[in-house]
Amino acid sequence: MTSTDWAGDALKAVIERVTVTEYEVGPRFPLFADPDSGRWTTTGRGSWTGGFWAGLLWLRARRTGAEADRAAASRCTARLAPWADADTATRGLILWYGTALASHDADATALRERSARTCLEAMDPELGLVPWGSALGGPRLLARADGVPGMVPLLAGAGPEGAAAADAHLHRHVELCLGDGSEHRPWTQPAWRFDAGPGWQPCEDPPQGWSRGRAWLLLAVADALHLPTLPGPRAEALAGATEHLLRHGAVLDGPLVPHADASRPDGPLDTSAAAITAVALLKLARLPGPRATEYAHRGSAILSRLVGTHLSGPRAHRPAGRLLDGCYDAGRGTAVRHELIWGDFFLALGLAALTGSLDITDV
User: Fold this and answer.
1) CA distances (Å), 229 to each of 125, 150, 171, 232, in order?
2) Tell me, what's the pLDDT at 180?
3) Which of 142, 143, 163, 306 makes an SS bond possible with 229, Cβ 3.0 to 4.6 Å?
4) Which string of DSSP letters, residue by residue, matches 210-250?
């Protein structure tokens, strides 16, 4: 069976699962689903994951071409509009991935453009980034690895000033999370708190071994390397960050599916981190360079493992097409072997790229 065959079959199953989920959650947003029953825990406003549900609906609409599916995706995206003015760096996750696949949808385009402007207005020039914000609770002046993906292409769409802000936002996070380049940290430090006196201080949560932190950073760097507005010297720095993430994260030679916390090898896996990493590698493979083929092969191998080992098949009383063994929060023991909506999204995105259904660099 060729990669297109198995990827196409798996993508079909995931998209069919989208239709089942749509019926079950109604106007709410799915967050994570029980690994046995498939029953979703939902949110009313979508939280930081709402854009991935909208993105899955847009992927379905692209695959089926049905007007009813386009309308459903458009309605879901419209429900994300309140987040455009919310004080949170996760607007990148919500409003980039919720709109990027909405081609020829004027309302989604307008929402993305408005979101880019409000994120640009939130840029703190002294800190050199868009702060984590207060919308999801906790301290506002944080820098977190999951505040970078999506934010980079979103800001870059706000003209030259937005492109400069995207560049600064990414590089400040890379400096904090990986080190300044002269002495890279062997572990990613995924979250930092700013205090007026001592400045940036590392946070204990999420932990240094958080696999999704590394995956989010790798994805954000891959996105930035595809931006035509990226300055040359910055591109060189990002190439170094890419190498660091690949090497110290054992992305190319370690387990295809990482543990949720690398410091806990007896703990749960996180298939969502693997799916994010696969998409990042497929994006890196589209850049010129001697390792492009290696990146493409590794990305495909990760997706193949996810499909072959962790994607549910048709069984009595268990829905098919679900990416299981995702870990929402290992430290708190929350949804540690579940189907996660962003895991489904990035798996579907990677499979769509393998089958030629979309250009991975557009999302």
Assistant:
1) 19, 16, 14, 9
2) 60
3) 163
4) BHHHHHHHHHHHHHHHT-TT--HHHHHHHHHHHHHHHHHTT
